[in-house]
Design goal:
heterotrimer, A alpha/beta, B alpha/beta, C alpha/beta, B: Rossmann fold
């Protein structure tokens, strides 16, 4: 296929009235840090995040300590009359938790049998109520999509104002991009039947965030 | 894909008579428009971001070779593979070579470029089973129809039609009950497709963006089907066209702020997913192979010519939603992959103006598409430019051309023009004075077949004015 | 408006009659003259005018368009302002002449200079001549159709409404989708009559739903299309150009109405 590549590049350069590749990288606005116009937040980032998540049909429990996550999960299960069978990420935050002994907990990727997934976000974006989820050994991507109920733990300290802030955080904390970065804003939905919004198309029917504010 | 662009006029007239289609279109109308209006009003920075987005795309296009090269290097560094395709045929061959063999079950997320290159047909000819996983795409796959909208492919289908399609198709899975409510329809599709997600060999998605900085491909979806399509099968193939590349994550962010708002009126779609290479050594899921097929299919020719601006398009569908012609006739009448204003520009460029002569003309140049386009693409101007080309190549109707020529000749001779029009209006004014209008008139049937022609008042303004002076 | 102390000569206005007003509705031309004179302008109607060239332009004939553009520029460039009771024709002169003539070194500057002095009638009265009062009355409820070119190329939206609000007896009932195209589109409506029919029918349905007595607009193309469709549907709703109402010149039968 290299000939197709050559032809495409030759055509592009001909259209751009240039014979060869650029000698130096082009000067681009985004090389200047913070150059993007950012939507002004109407509230403090954590409140904004919660508000926007609600608009996107997500739900939030605000707890004060990491140890409250188990109780918040139990409450969530009770609210929706769900059996305590969970697939949980082996994320640092979640590994600290002690689940009730009678709950059925497994780790690793989710399967078609899993109904509840518990994962941890890399960041929350206030601007849109978006969760930034990174794939990895401690956060299989299938957890985000196969279970009906997706529970995500995030700390208020991880809430950033804008998506650009999450990218900066990501560049600072990993050497290479994870295989998958999911920006998740609310549960799965479709409007393909007569433009009526229906939640739970192929992915989670519900998205629940446990927000730790210590 | 089958193409019937030269049948536009006939197809439009059939569509206008199609009661079911009209019912579906009436339900869709307004919804997109109102949601977009609210979303844009809630973002005071919209115009600034719009200008920024245009600048980003223009910068990228001006250095397209650089960013494509950078993107390719980053994909390779992350363990993925890149395949280049100049034509639709090359793109299909590349995908088939990656899939290999025959009889594979291939999942597909919604991808307009895959429609453009006719990928489904190519895969089926090679003996593979293709499963469209976006609900709208799944519905039209069952109906054996092309999409009628670039973001809502089944917008032309009513719920009753979907019920019937599901009933016929899902019986073989033991699902014999009629599902009529939206929730039940969605659940049944979820149930059927879930088994396909868990049992397929290959997943193919499109890409809304390619990020040069990281070598990531990005999909923007609401259902999560695209994600299941790309994380469950062993092989993930991305088909994307060359103009999808953007320099950085921050650049993509600017475009994301416009995309969902312009498309569905959401601030963000439910799932924006960046895929970079295959699964890593310690990953517990994800594809083992990651391939990006980069398609040109005529775009490198558009670069820098009078249709260059079209390469900024991010496929939000706002121009379709705001086009009164599209709303009246739906997407199928246009006869190829891309309908509405953006399609009426792109289609002639991709399949030849001589094969799509009606498309640039079937527009009132009312300007609404250009007004809402988040990428400030001057769609009406480009449609007019295509009309210039039709005129130059004498592709327009010969009789109309002669009539126009005669009128033009007269219009450049004011004295003669005024004498001729003075007589005409005097005659018509006298005949029409009593009724005030004509129900039919020789040579004006295009007008009078659907509306009366108001009669002239009598003398022309010029004549009356001279008399008054 | 000119005050008593103002000693400057009245601005000269070249009235671009527009072909449709010239042929179908001279009353609108006289209404425009009356309004402009009331606003303190000296109005001239150059003889060497026919049409703005849109039929050629929008059907792909650039050469004819350029010839007509040069003819219009030559006929109108001596005036302080060029005004027409049409957003469509002014949009053509203002937005498109400079593009049509951009490679013609003798004409491109002249096109630009004319473009800068071109105004749609209601926008000119309100924005340039600062007209704030209207001596007219019209005892009717009216709805207003925003013609596409005026609205999107020139930003004509509030000006006609502001002036109408000063007309005694008028109540404005806004219709749904007043900014959506009526399906005229120049030759579009005769090339694609069935699509145009659907569009104009949507428009007349929105007009009818307001229960207004009368539909007004600022462009003869749209008004002929809307009136023609309303009449075909047997509607009693009257159609006038907004200038006729503003100038108190509604004594003539409405557009598409006969002598009774």
């Amino acid at each position: 296929m290299s000939s197709a590549r050559d032809e495409i590049f030759a055509r592009i350069r001909r259209s751009l009235r240039r014979n060869a590749a650029l000698e130096a990288p082009p000067v681009h606005r985004s090389q200047a840090p913070e150059s993007n116009v950012r939507p002004r937040l109407e509230n403090d980032p954590v409140e904004c995040f919660v508000e926007k998540l609600h608009i996107a049909a997500g739900t939030v429990d605000r707890v004060t300590a990491i140890s409250d996550v188990v109780q918040a999960t139990a409450d969530y299960l009770a609210r929706h009359a769900l059996e305590p069978r969970l697939v949980v990420a082996e994320h640092l935050l979640i590994k600290q938790l002690t689940w009730p002994a009678e709950w059925k907990i497994h780790t690793g990727p989710a399967t078609g049998e899993d109904h509840i997934g518990v994962g941890a976000a890399f960041a929350g974006v206030a601007e849109t109520g978006t969760l930034v989820m990174l794939s990895g050994a401690d956060n299989p991507t299938t957890l985000n999509f196969l279970p009906d109920d997706h529970i995500v733990v995030v700390s208020a300290l991880q809430i950033v104002a804008h998506l650009e802030d999450a990218w900066r955080l990501l560049r600072d904390s990993v050497a290479t991009m994870p295989r998958t970065v999911n920006l998740i804003t609310g549960p799965s939905r479709t409007a393909d039947v007569e433009q009526t919004i229906q939640l739970g198309a192929h992915g989670p029917r519900r998205l629940h965030v446990i927000l730790i504010e210590d | 894909m089958q193409r019937s662009t030269s049948e536009f006029k006939h197809q439009a007239e059939v569509a206008l008579q199609d009661v079911t289609l009209q019912r579906a279109m009436a339900k869709a109308k307004g919804g997109f428009v109102d949601k977009r209006r609210v979303a844009v009003a809630r973002l005071p920075e919209f115009e600034q971001i719009r200008a920024e987005a245009k600048a980003i795309k223009e910068h990228t296009l001006a250095h397209l070779d650089y960013y494509l090269d950078q993107f390719e290097r980053k994909v390779l560094e992350s363990g993925g593979q890149v395949h280049w395709a100049r034509t639709a045929e090359q793109a299909c061959s590349a995908v088939l070579a990656i899939i290999g063999g025959s009889g594979k079950q291939v999942l597909k997320g919604k991808s307009m470029v895959s429609e453009e290159i006719g990928l489904n047909a190519a895969m089926e000819r090679a003996g593979h089973t293709v499963v469209e996983t976006d609900l709208g795409e799944y519905i039209i796959q069952l109906a054996d129809e092309p999409p009628s909208h670039i973001i809502a492919p089944a917008v032309h289908k009513t719920r009753d039609q979907i019920t019937a399609l599901f009933h016929a198709e899902h019986e073989k899975y033991g699902l014999t009950e009629l599902v009529t409510e939206t929730e039940d329809i969605v659940n049944e599709a979820r149930q059927v497709l879930r088994t396909k997600f868990l049992s397929s060999d290959v997943g193919i998605t499109g890409a809304n963006f390619l990020i040069a900085e990281t070598g990531s491909t990005v999909i923007v979806t609401n259902e999560g089907n695209g994600d299941l399509t790309q994380i469950l099968p062993r092989i993930h193939i991305v088909t994307a066209s060359i103009e999808k590349v953007v320099p950085s994550l921050d650049d993509m962010t600017v475009l994301l702020r416009l995309l969902a708002r312009s498309a569905t009126g959401q601030e963000m779609s439910s799932y924006n997913t960046l895929s970079t290479g295959p699964r890593r050594a310690d990953d517990q899921d994800g594809p083992e192979e990651f391939h990006v097929v980069i398609v040109d299919n005529g775009r490198s020719e558009m670069l820098g010519n009078e249709f260059h601006d079209m390469l900024r398009c991010i496929r939000c569908g706002a121009c379709l939603n705001h086009c009164p012609v599209y709303s009246a006739i739906g997407g199928h009448a246009y006869g190829w992959v891309y309908p509405g204003p953006m399609g009426s520009v792109l289609t002639p460029l991709m399949i030849g103006l001589e094969n799509a002569r009606d498309l640039p003309n079937a527009c009132t140049l009312n300007g609404r598409c250009g007004e809402v386009c988040p990428m400030s693409i001057p769609l009406p101007d480009m449609l007019r430019t295509l009309r210039f080309k039709e005129h130059e190549r004498k592709l327009s109707n010969a009789r109309a051309r002669w009539a126009l020529k005669a009128w033009g000749w007269l219009a450049q001779r004011p004295g003669l023009y005024q004498a001729v029009t003075g007589v005409m209006t005097a005659v018509l004014g006298r005949i029409g004075a009593r009724a005030g209008r004509f129900r039919s008139l020789p040579l004006a049937s295009g007008w009078t077949q659907v509306r009366d022609l108001p009669a002239p008042q009598g003398a022309t303004f010029q004549r009356l004015w001279r008399k008054r002076q | 408006m000119a005050s008593a102390q103002d000693t400057r000569p009245p601005p000269s206005v070249g009235l671009f009659a527009t072909c449709l007003i010239d042929l179908f509705r001279p009353n609108v031309g006289f209404a425009a003259v009356k309004l402009l004179e009331k606003a303190g302008c000296r109005v001239t109607v150059p003889r060497a005018q026919t049409c703005c060239g849109q039929p050629a332009y929008n059907n792909g004939d650039q050469q004819t368009t350029a010839s007509i553009a040069r003819q219009v520029i030559a006929a109108f460039e001596s005036f302080d302002y060029v005004v027409a009771a049409s957003g469509s024709c002014i949009g053509m002169i203002k937005e498109h002449y400079p593009r049509v003539l951009k490679n013609d070194s003798n004409w491109c500057d002249r096109a630009e200079q004319l473009a800068a002095r071109c105004h749609e009638l209601t926008a000119f009265l309100v924005d340039v001549m600062q007209m704030r009062e209207v001596e007219s009355s019209f005892a009717a409820s009216v709805t207003y159709h925003d013609s596409c070119s005026g609205l999107r190329e020139l930003g004509v939206k509030q000006q006609p409404r502001m002036l109408l609000s000063k007309v005694g007896g008028v109540t404005l009932k806004e219709m749904e989708d007043s900014e959506v195209c009526c399906g005229f589109g120049g030759t579009f409506c005769i090339k694609y009559p069935k699509i145009s029919e659907r569009m104009v029918s949507d428009k007349t349905a929105n007009i009818t739903a307001t229960e207004a007595d009368c539909i007004l607009g600022g462009d003869m193309g749209c008004l002929l299309n809307i009136a023609g469709r309303l009449k075909r549907q047997g509607s009693l709703i009257k159609v006038y150009h907004v200038a006729e109402v503003l100038a108190a010149m509604t004594d003539q039968p409405a557009i598409g109405e006969g002598e009774s």
